[in-house]
Amino acid sequence: MSTVEVRDLVKHYDKVRAVDGVSLRSADGEYLVLLGPSGCGKTTLLRTIAGLEQPTSGQVLIGDQVVNDLPPRARKIAMVFQSYALYPHKTVLANIVFPLKAEGMDKRAREERARWAAGLLGIEHLLDRKPRQLSGGERQRVALARALVRQPRVFLLDEPLSNLDAKLRASARDELKRFQQEIGTTTIYVTHDQTEAMGLGDRIAVLESGTLRQIGRPIEVYDDPADTFVATFIGSPPMNLVPRDGRLVGFRPEHLLPLELGAEDRVTLKLDVDRIEYLSGDRHVYGTATGLGEPTRVIARLPATVLTPIEPGRTYDFSIRGEKLRYFDAATGRRTDPP
Ligand SMILES: Nc1ncnc2c1ncn2[C@@H]1O[C@H](COP(=O)(O)OP(=O)(O)O)[C@@H](O)[C@H]1O
Ligand SMILES: [Mg+2]
């Protein structure tokens, strides 16, 4: 087990600022998720930690030791990529032992290690098969076992579930999390999928354009976003933002409720409803909010327990508890104090 840290890390490719000054530190045994849109620098950051890229400036530390000058192998890190190429003509067992063979471990010892890894991932019964005889999820586990046999200090996983279909992804996510809890290895997990990040991460580091916007527990980045980027990137539907007096007033869709359900400390608005969607029992009510700030399109998410009849084409009184409002600077998008 080990900590991972980057200090003022910069990686430029000519004019592209792929990573533009990022500092963060994982705890020992932590599951840290790097979350951000495509092109924000997640893969570059991970490859730099792994030693596959040299930083333009800044430091990479593993277990509090600066490893900038260590080659990838010496960093004792295992990386699983989005396209985890398995050798198609080798059996699962041969695929898993491959890195140990390359290191010169003897046959008996490496097969023992492979069986241990296969046992942890629940794939012992597949050891004699070829990759084409496996499902996507099983191939994924073989790739993880192959990374695991080297008993790395740190796992780096780059969108490892993105090749799986949605349903399989949910179960594979669950398995990955349980597996990591069992072995307790520090894991840095890259994804552009905020649902995956919220479900997996002990903490989430939100990146945009090569910079770190916020790092915190899932509930922190959700409830207390540091800026409007985080507020709208996390959450589905995203946080509503209404311009008012030179600021933006933010509130989550589930906090916008029909007036009679509101508490004492509340702000009210009128919602011109134009559309309603039903999603897993919730009603998503789309409309234009007036009376809070400038007229703005917003979404209210009403749980199935809210029975108030609502129809498109009509206007309703809604309210939000004052404590649920978040304020942002309209120019910079940064969080500000309430007025
Ligand atoms: N080898 C490279 N040469 C030039 N530009 C690159 C290279 N690798 C990545 N980039 C650029 O760096 C930025 C970050 O890319 P990447 O780290 O792959 O983002 P992500 O993984 O978040 O999608 C992108 O603009 C990408 O085009
Ligand atoms: Mg990537």
Summarize this structure as a short list of keywords or feature phrases.
single chain, alpha+beta, Rossmann fold, OB fold (Dihydrolipoamide Acetyltransferase, E2P), six-stranded mixed sheet, five-stranded antiparallel sheet, binds adenosine-5'-diphosphate, binds magnesium ion
If you compute it from the alpha carbons, what radius of gyration comes out, rounded to the nearest whole angstrom? 24 Å
Termini separation (Å)?
Answer: 46 Å
The helix tally amounts to 8
Number of domains: 2
Helix content: 25-40%
Structural overview:
The protein folds into two domains: 4-223, Rossmann fold (3-Layer(aba) Sandwich); 242-336, Nucleic acid-binding proteins (OB fold (Dihydrolipoamide Acetyltransferase, E2P)), CATH 2.40.50.140. The model has no long low-confidence stretch (mean pLDDT 92). The strands form four sheets. A six-stranded mixed beta sheet has the order 6-7-8-3-9-10, sandwiched between helices. The chain is elongated and about 75 Å long. By secondary structure, it is of the alpha+beta class. It has eight helices and 19 strands. Helix 2 (92-103) packs across helix 3 (107-121) and helix 3 crosses helix 4 (136-148). Bound molecules: adenosine-5'-diphosphate and magnesium ion (MG).
